[in-house]
Design brief:
With about 230 residues, the protein is mostly helical. It has ten helices and no strands. The protein has one domain: MetI-like fold (Orthogonal Bundle). About 35% of the residues are buried.
Length: about 230
């Protein structure tokens, strides 16, 4: 117990004095995950909107497939991205394997189906409510989709925040494509796994506490946004 207590004390000390190694790892983690979520949102939100308003052959199987991708094992994503970016892969000439760019690709692949599937459901519910009104105004499918995206923006922000939390907590895929290289591709989750195996509990605990605080903060922000949306729009 004394060792555990000492480890926690050192972990809080590292956080309090903004330990350089800890700050670098956290900064890289946020940078990678934030970039990946932006990419995923730019792809997933329009895709979700298109599936919400369009009706075409194969739409339902596509929705089922998209929902299935939400549960895609991260290590499988990591393996597939690794094969794509390896020297023998089709994108090997990019030379980004074992770099933050590769981790961004892996996280974006993981998060895009989540944002697309959840936004599709949200926007489809809104489309059901406003379809007749938008059609009476002569809105095209594209303009209707844009209207739905704007009208549902508060709900969509919470979905994007959930995607960010998913990306920030990812370890398997980023470990495979990033290599967990110190000072280059070491993020919070991979550092926690490595430092725990090495017995460096203070750093692992410090990163773990920050990761938990980040997840709690994201959920708090999402709750506030939902409350504001309810108060504003009922």
């Amino acid at each position: 117990m004394n060792d555990v207590g000492r480890a926690f004390a050192e972990a809080f000390g590292m956080i309090g004095r903004l330990d350089a190694q800890l700050v670098d790892i956290v900064a890289l983690s946020v940078q990678v995950s934030l970039t990946a979520v932006v990419v995923a949102a730019l792809i997933g939100l329009p895709l979700g909107a298109a599936l919400a308003v369009e009706r075409f052959p194969g739409r339902q199987p596509l929705i089922v497939f998209l929902n299935a991708l939400m549960g895609l094992p991260p290590v499988v994503v990591g393996l597939l991205v690794y094969l794509l970016l390896s020297r023998a892969g089709p994108l090997g000439d990019l030379g980004i394997l074992f770099t933050p760019a590769a981790m961004i690709v892996a996280q974006a692949v993981l998060v895009t189906p989540i944002i697309a599937a959840l936004s599709r459901q949200t926007l489809e519910d809104t489309w059901t409510e406003y379809e007749e009104q938008l059609r009476s105004l002569g809105a095209s499918r594209a303009s209707a989709a844009l209207t739905l995206l704007w009208d549902s923006r508060f709900s969509l922000v919470t979905i994007v925040l959930a995607g960010f939390g998913r990306a920030a907590a990812e370890v398997g895929a980023v470990m495979i494509v990033g290599g967990n290289i110190e000072g280059v591709t070491r993020v919070m989750t991979t550092a926690i796994a490595l430092e725990t195996s090495k017995g460096d509990l203070p750093l692992a605990l410090g990163l773990g506490l920050i990761l938990i605080a980040l997840v709690i903060a994201l959920n708090a922000v999402a709750s506030v946004i939902k409350e504001l949306a309810v108060k504003r729009y009922g």
